[in-house]
Amino acid sequence: MSIELDPYSLLDFLQDKSKIILMARIFIWLFVCSFFAVLIFLAIPPEQKSLYPEFNSFSITDRNGILLRQVLSRDYKTSVWKNIDEISPDMIKAIIISEDKRFLIHRGVDFIALYRAMFENLRHRRIYSGGSTITMQVAKITLNHKKRTIINKILEIFYALKLELHLSKAR
User: Of the given ranges (11-20, 65-74, 79-88, 148-157), which has the lowest mean pLDDT?
Assistant: First the structure.
């Protein structure tokens, strides 16, 4: 079964002003619905439990603090959550400088870094740079994205905006 497109039938269709008006109304309606869907998505705060892994590693010690057993996380790694107060300010600065220089300035998405990454990817003709902010990296981990695709990047952008809207930089 083949579909043949007749350019004259398309021209006939577009010459009817009522059909053009109908198409314009449908387009506007879809745009407005999409706009409100994005607003609603951004307005709903992220679930706190989705931001933290379900299972960390833990240690079993005796009353003197001597390690008796180390239980690894599901991905067989040692991981322990630390409060931001327990991390050296120099370590925090080093991470921000190396990962996201404009972390304190942007609202979750660094469009300058995204444009730079886009041009580098086009120049190298492959995914060479991602342009993600720290918040976008948190979104990627939370959304459990494994592949680097444009659709995933767009979803990470929206989720990063949502995180920045509802949480402080320290959180």
Answer: 11-20
> pLDDT at position 44, please?
78
CB neighbours of residue 98 within 10 Å: 8
Per-residue pLDDT tens for 87-108?
888 888 888 888 888 888 888 8
Phi-psi region of 83 (alpha: psi -120 to 50; beta: other; left: phi over 0): beta
Three-state secondary structure call for residue 61 = strand
Amino acid at the residue 39: L
> pTM to 2 decimals?
0.61
CA distances 21 to 2, 8, 9, 18, 33, Å, are: 30, 20, 18, 5, 18
Distance (Å, rounded) from C-alpha 131 to C-alpha 139? 13
Please, which residues have CB within 8 angstroms of residue 52's CB and are 6 or more apart in sequence?
81
Task: Please state, in angstroms and rounded to a whole number, the distance separating the CA atoms of residues 23 and 120.
Answer: 38
- How is residue 100 written in tokens? 């996201």
Biggest CA-to-CA distance, the chain? 87
Answer whether residue 171 shows pLDDT above 80: no
